[in-house]
Amino acid sequence: MGSASGPPDRLHSSSDSILAHISDDGTRMQSLSEHLKNTAALAGGFADAFSCRQWGRTAGLLHDDGKASDAFQRRIRGAGNRVDHSTPGAKYASENLRAFKGSGKLLAYCIAGHHSGLPNGDGGGDETSLAARLRRSSAGVGHAASEIPANLESPPIERPPASADKRGFSAAFFARMIYSCLVDADYLDTESFLDPERADKRRRAPNLLDLKPRLDAHLAEVAKNVEQTDVNRLRARILEECRIAASLHPGLFSLTVPTGGGKTLSSMAFALKHAVAHGLRRVIYVIPYTSIIEQTARVFRDIFGGDSVLEHHSNLIQEKDEADDEAEERRRLASENWDAPIVVTTNVQFFESFFANRSSKTRKLHNVAKSVIILDEAQMLPVPVLRPTLEVIRELVEHYGTSIILCTATQPALMANDEFKNGLEGAREMMSAPPDLEKALARVREKRLGTTKDADIIRLIRDEKRCLCIVNTKKHARLLFQALGGAEGGFHLSAAMCPVHRSRVLGDLKEPKAGTIRQRLRDEEPCRVVSTQLVEAGVDLDFPVVIRAIAGIDSIVQAAGRCNREGRIAEGGRLYIFTPEEGLPPGHFRQSAQITELVLHDREGSTLDSETVRAYFRELYWVKDHGGGLDSERIMPLFEPGAVSGDFPFKTVAGLYRLIPDAQMPVIVPFDDRAGELCEELRWNTSPGALLRRLQPYTIQVYPGVLAGLIQSGYVESLHEDRYYVLTQFGMREAYDEHFGLNPVTKDFIQPEDLMP
Description:
The structure is a single chain. The protein is α/β, with parallel strands linked by helices. It folds into 4 domains: 15-200, Hypothetical protein af1432 (Orthogonal Bundle); 208-435, Rossmann fold (3-Layer(aba) Sandwich), CATH 3.40.50.300; 443-607, Rossmann fold; 665-754, no CATH class. It is 43% helix and 13% strand. The strands form 6 sheets. It has a 7-stranded parallel beta sheet with strand order 5-6-4-7-8-3-9, with helices on both faces. Helix 1 (32-47) packs across helix 7 (164-194), helix 2 (53-62) crosses helix 5 (103-112) and helix 9 runs antiparallel to helix 11.
């Protein structure tokens, strides 16, 4: 298989003397032939999960073809300049692998970008584009040409009569999956040679077949000890129906269960039984908020053991530390490629990885194939990027052997209908009668207050012995709490408090300490909580009264789930919905709240019933689908040319797709003595990976402009050349409040509402 451009200069020596790697001490050498074959075997095995072994294997055989050049061999032996060793193999693929239209070009993206990231196809004047690199490069001669198959199997990228943008998206998605196989295989083989001790720590955790009995035993113990109430009998029924549904063929599922119905463990019971029955490899539990991921991961670790559960989200810093113990090191290594049986992650970490172009972000993608993915509160996916996000779900289900469960307390708003053509199709509902569950778990009486002054909300809170008030901004929560004036059992919660601070205020789920929210609720003592929306998903609280500032109906449904959660109040808990006198905050809150007001206008039915919810999502999602509002960055049209030309804007799209548009920065809060000691150690430790992981529960997220102001005022200092930011002792005194968390309200440069909700 020759090249039209001719081969580059080559060393005239045996294949064993053509090197891929030399150990740091110079005593061991890995031949290029060995590295290519090892990488090919690994990448082929990874791609076999979606029936494309030959693609992964071929990418592995060609990825370092440029290392056979004289220039690189001089470089690896200590002489010469930096050499582009990726593009020759990419050019060889693009010019010689034409088993079907575009096959070689798809591989070329993967090979050219296996270090620098997936490039744009034809970037015009962009010299980093694939087209520019191929023009500049001499083609490789196929160092392992005899191993390359003459024909590649057809990839899962044809979906007629799909639109051009969907066909292009599908082809680009396939390239990302092959890229993931290649970069993970390359990393693993290189690590195995250069750092065998580290590679040995990647021992496999228990498989799902081993983990299923642990969950079954836990659920049996819960059932044996739980109080036999109507709500708990319904939870047992939900669990049983999930187990029955597990025998169904892999694909798309919906689990529509009202809040408080036990979706977390019931969906996991489905996932494990379903995976074992159908040979799926792992369970990935995807959560909308970082504020609850640690709690969910802890629940699973208690059941399955810490060696089986990987917690990975965008805020968790994964760095090597010489002080890492073996278990911690294995967890860190598993986070690189999600080689763990159970992964708990966030929407941001999960979905943004499928639009990223860097190897560090995409390396794990091949391990998503043949998995069970639980999307908790699926209706909370951000509207501006909903259309490309739904295409990820569609691709994984249709072509990569995954089962995806859309968990929601409301009706499945993401499904296609006459008004929502780009919605998902073919989801099978696990519950036999969701409307009956809705009625059976209806535990609240609702009252709409209309526009209401803060003073009236304060009186309402004071008049109730136990009450939860949820508002849309930190500023509003702070003002209401201050206006309570030290009322008995008063508490404040927001994400301006670090997770340890919030956890101490809430109290442990099983054994809460005296004076915490959960203990006061358990003892039926006065408990009046003012909070932002962070308590609405995944936080197990049960109040007789909930007051909610108007928001999206999905948020109101979540708030209602904190009211009479256990169904002990026969006549129902009370839910009050009000519109703040000061109006609504800009952005998503205002938009969703205004849609709620529109839907509720002249409607006599409950805010929580399925017809109201359906009307809400019709306005939120379905109407916008016609005007492009579900793809505000116009990402999908960017893939349309690729359906014909094979030119895909990988690098461009990586900068456009963001679930949270404004990036935030972590600030470490030395909230207690333990955190203070860790922060002191952070000052001098040059390999602080383990330290940073222990400090994770002490971090809050702030916007860059806010961070700059905090530094300028001496509240925050930067460590290790602006890599880490820590609240100073002065900042703890002046800017971190025992009730509000980060709260420098006396300073002009910042307001609490500028921080993350």
